[in-house]
Specification:
Number of domains: 1
Shape: globular
CATH class: Alpha Beta
Strand order of the largest sheet: 6-7-8-3-9-10
Order of helices and strands: EEEHEEHEHHHHEHEHEEHH
Structural class: alpha/beta
Largest sheet: 6 strands, mixed
Number of strands: 10
CATH architecture: 3-Layer(aba) Sandwich
Bound molecules: adenosine-5'-diphosphate, magnesium ion
């Protein structure tokens, strides 16, 4: 498989406090990779830096062979790297449909309505609520909308940052099943998720992060239930 995302020796700081200390990770085309670790390990910070949403203190990011280390978030999205942020963020005053159309701006300047039908097929509850403001959706529905907004942008790599976010298990199962299907169709997935067993059940490969460093990398099925996993989540490593 060819490497799609290649992150090399990434450093990220908030002010003077460095919280990501030389992270390297890679995702191949169509691969489903989980990035795991305790709260505060630096997962979201890593993802935000990769997507260009926060500044990098050092390192290099390549996407499909292009150096995107210093590219703008907009150009990164256009290149096909789309991140669904933590905390089901959608535009509350806008309708479900307008939220989806915003997702299509990545590929088309004025929005592309022709992509809506496929999203409504995938997520029928969005079709029923297409004219409602997003603020009227439940937390789970907002999360589905946020994921749909990412998918409709037709990413080559979809980054999902804690899609479960305290929602009902049924919602996360559906989201992970959709992600799995996308990866079978060739869309790479990089998933951060606190529901570790679920993440490992869907992912091909995984990275384990602790205090700003990758401490383990391997096949998801080898990590499930392992001592490494147990100590990373329950051990003495402060976050
Ligand atoms: N905006 C911020 N300003 C300062 N520190 C932050 C900010 N966001 C996160 N941090 C700190 O950076 C570290 C990594 O956080 P984060 O990347 O959110 O971890 P994770 O996503 O793995 O839970 C934590 O110690 C957190 O407190
Ligand atoms: Mg996070």
């Amino acid at each position: 498989m060819s490497t799609l995302l290649d992150v090399e020796d990434l450093h990220v700081a908030y002010g003077k406090a460095e919280v990501v200390h030389g992270t390297s990770l890679a995702v191949a085309a169509g691969e489903f990779v989980a990035l795991l670790g305790r709260n505060g390990a630096g997962k979201s910070t890593t993802l935000h830096a990769v997507s260009g949403l926060i500044a990098k203190g050092g390192g290099r990011v390549r996407f499909d062979g292009q150096d995107i280390t210093n590219a703008s978030p907009r150009d990164i999205v256009r290149a096909g790297l789309v991140q669904v942020l933590e905390g089901h963020r959608v535009f509350h005053p806008l309708t479900v449909e307008d939220n989806l159309l915003i997702g299509t701006y990545a590929r088309s300047k004025h929005g592309d309505r022709s992509k809506l039908a496929a999203m409504y097929d995938l997520f029928p509850e969005m079709a029923e609520r297409r004219h409602q403001p997003a603020s009227r959706l439940s937390g789970g529905q907002q999360q589905i909308l946020a994921v749909a907004q990412g998918i409709i942008a037709e990413p080559r790599l979809l980054i999902l940052d804690e899609p479960s976010g305290g929602l009902a298990p049924l919602v996360i199962d559906r989201i992970l099943d959709v992600a799995r299907r996308l990866s079978r169709d060739g869309v790479a997935i990089l998933l951060v998720e606190q529901l570790v067993e679920k993440a490992l059940a869907h992912a091909d490969r995984c990275y384990l992060m602790a205090t700003g460093r990758i401490v383990h990398e391997g096949l998801a099925r080898d990590l499930a239930g392992s001592d490494i996993l147990h100590s990373a989540y329950l051990g003495g490593q402060a976050t």
